[in-house]
Amino acid sequence: MHPQGAGPGPKNKSAAVPPTTDDEIREKYLERAIRELNDLGHDLSSCRDCPRGSVMPVQGSGHPQADIFMLKYRATPPEIEEGVAFYGRAGNALMKSFKRLAIDPIVVFGTLCVKCPLTDADAASESCIERIVEEIGIVQPRIVVVMGEDALATLNRLDMPLADEVEATEGEIQRLTPTIDALYVPDIDSSLDEVSAKQRFWSSFRALGEWYDQLPPY
Q1: Which of 70, 89, 144, 155 could form a disulfide with 110 if both were Cys (CB 3.0 to 4.6 A apart)?
Q2: Residue 93: which domain range?
Q3: Cα distances (Å, whole numbers) of residue 127 to 48, 132, 182
Q4: 3-class state of residue 136 by DSSP
Q5: How many helices (H) and strands (E) does the chain have?
Q6: Does residue 6 fall inside a structural domain?
Q7: pLDDT per residue over 26-42, tens digit each?
């Protein structure tokens, strides 16, 4: 019996609530990734650990849940001017490479180890560099493309959970973590001014196309 004046007890409403679709789940994860990357960008802009003065840091760019995470060491002058990673020659060269490899650019995110525009990149704060771990955690890529020796050394010294050391073996797909692969290639910025350097970069970078072709469909 119900107490006098009380209505019927609560009903099981689970049957009346439509199940959450895969698209809705993906949308929520995307919204969260966008929010977290925006928060990271605000934190970087207000950070004063590095001696960058009034010049703003260079932010990562691309899809917040990209399959492919591009990582190079430091910014070029065009990237510093625009405040966006992979702006200018490197970005244009990569777009041409993605087209040759039939990789959709929408599945790519690019960032820098040293986001602050410093004359001496070695003066960057270690706490700022360690933000890469946070960035990878937000994007949750399937592969990290490491560009150049400095970027490789930086990635290998980060405290990433369950991470293996990535070898300086160009063009070979390696294990970074149980869910993320790694590909080491030469530094793109130093590969664009000389024919043999371009060929060396392309020879190692095309392994990304073979890896991408093997991805299961969504």
Answers
A1: 70
A2: 22-213
A3: 11, 10, 23
A4: helix
A5: 8, 6
A6: no
A7: 777 778 877 877 777 77
Q: Is residue 3 part of a domain?
A: no
- Which residues lie across from 161 on neighbouring strands? none
22-46 vs 131-139: helix crossing angle, rounded to 10: 160
Residue 176, C-beta contacts closer than 8 angstroms, at least 6 positions apart? 144, 160, 163, 164, 166, 182
In the numeric block, which tokens belong to residue 169?
A: 């073996």
Q: Which amino acid is at 57?
A: P
CA proximity to 37, closest of 142, 116, 138, 160: 138
Three-state SS annotation for 169-201? CECCEEEEECCEEEEEECCCCCCCCCHHHHHHH
| φ/ψ (deg, to 5) at 23 | -65, -40
Task: Evaluate if residue 130 carries a pLDDT over 70.
Answer: yes
Question: What are the pLDDT digits (tens) for 148-184?
Answer: 999 999 999 998 999 999 999 999 999 999 999 999 9
CATH of the domain at 33: 3.40.470.10
From CA 140, how far away is CA 210, in angstroms rounded?
20
Angle at 184 between CA 181 and CA 187, to 5 degrees: 140
- The answer to whether position 32 is within a domain reads yes
What is the reported pLDDT for 54?
64
